[in-house]
């Protein structure tokens, strides 16, 4: 009897602790695309299902984001760009560059994802960590979108937190295989925000912007090489910047199996990458918000496994 009660107590305590680690998700994230579109949109429903199925998280950890407002968007995007996007008035070439057919539902998806990152950052400031099952749309610039990114969710969240004086500084750790070019441009003259991007030198975008720190990686970079660089750069950066919050873009297109990436990381290496970022943030007592970024491996199982690892590590460290 006593043992049963003890188990019950343990269970309820776990579920209370779990609820502290919040994850933004909305059914809109899984947006319908034309058949054979190259973007693996299904990951936005497979991943939350997998995380709940395996017991990494419980359904009560998800929150439905409130979409960001026009005022919030226009803190870092041009009002004219936002108006064109909202009224579906982008030119055919502007739409082609985004990689998605433009629709009201897509715009709703983008403002919901950005709301997820913004609210996740508020949760992270309370509980140490929070995540978004989407986001990291780092190819969105002040006045244009490209590469599956229309609005820059991290830039919007950082701009809102700065405006509300909830933070004085932020560090953006962008470990997607592609450079965070939009993010670098948006914050190029803002000394409160440090942009760090580690990416393939020969990958899209061909024309790179200038982040506060860019690390360009050669084709075929191995786990060992990659992790040595990250272990060398990130601790100093966190020490030196001592930011109020860290945004981690955890794209899994660094995998060797990725169709668009050119690096040679294994799933285990990618997992160790995530472990390094979360461990440093936690040890330094700095809140961390993780957004997913890209992932284009041939097998959807590899994409899900690598993204799931990011959530598994955070769940194990903050539970
Ligand atoms: Zn990418």
Structural overview:
It is built from 11 helices and 8 strands. The protein has 319 residues and is α/β, with parallel strands linked by helices. It has one domain (41-317): 3-Layer(aba) Sandwich (Arginase, Chain A), CATH 3.40.800. α6 packs across α7. The longest helix is centred in the middle third of the chain and has 24 residues, at 104-127. 46% of the residues are buried. The structure holds zinc ion. Zinc ion binds next to loops. Zinc ion (ZN) binds at residues 176-178, 251, 253, 293-294.
Main traits of this protein?
single chain, Arginase, Chain A, alpha/beta, disordered N terminus, eight-stranded parallel sheet, 45% helix, binds zinc ion, 319 residues, 11 helices
């Amino acid at each position: 009897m006593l043992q049963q009660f003890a188990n019950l107590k343990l269970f309820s305590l776990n579920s209370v602790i779990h609820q502290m680690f919040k994850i933004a998700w909305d059914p809109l994230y899984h947006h319908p695309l034309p058949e054979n579109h190259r973007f693996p949109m299904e990951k936005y429903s497979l991943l939350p299902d997998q995380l709940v199925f395996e017991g990494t998280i419980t359904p009560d950890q998800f929150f439905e984001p409130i979409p960001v407002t026009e005022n919030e968007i226009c803190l870092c995007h041009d009002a004219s760009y936002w108006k064109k996007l909202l009224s579906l008035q982008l030119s055919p070439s502007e739409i082609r560059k985004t990689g998605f057919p433009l629709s009201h539902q897509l715009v709703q998806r983008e403002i919901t994802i950005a709301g997820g990152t913004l609210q996740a950052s508020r949760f992270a400031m309370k509980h140490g960590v929070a995540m978004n099952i989407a986001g990291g749309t780092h190819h969105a610039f002040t006045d244009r979108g490209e590469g599956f990114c229309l609005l820059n969710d991290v830039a919007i969240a950082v701009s809102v937190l700065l405006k509300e004086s909830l933070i004085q500084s932020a560090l953006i750790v962008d470990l997607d295989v592609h450079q965070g070019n939009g993010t670098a441009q948006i914050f190029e003259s803002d000394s409160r925000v440090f942009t760090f991007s580690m990416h393939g030198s020969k990958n899209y975008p061909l024309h790179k912007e200038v982040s506060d720190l860019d690390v360009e990686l050669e084709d075929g970079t191995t786990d060992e090489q990659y992790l040595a660089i990250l272990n060398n750069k990130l601790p100093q950066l966190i020490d030196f910047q001592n930011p109020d919050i860290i945004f981690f873009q955890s794209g899994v297109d660094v995998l060797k199996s990725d169709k668009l990436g050119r690096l040679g990381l294994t799933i285990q290496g990618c997992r160790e990458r995530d472990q390094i970022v979360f461990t440093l943030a936690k040890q330094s007592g700095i809140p961390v918000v993780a957004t997913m970024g890209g992932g284009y491996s041939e097998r959807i199982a590899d994409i899900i496994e690598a993204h799931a690892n990011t959530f598994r590590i955070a769940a194990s460290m903050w539970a």
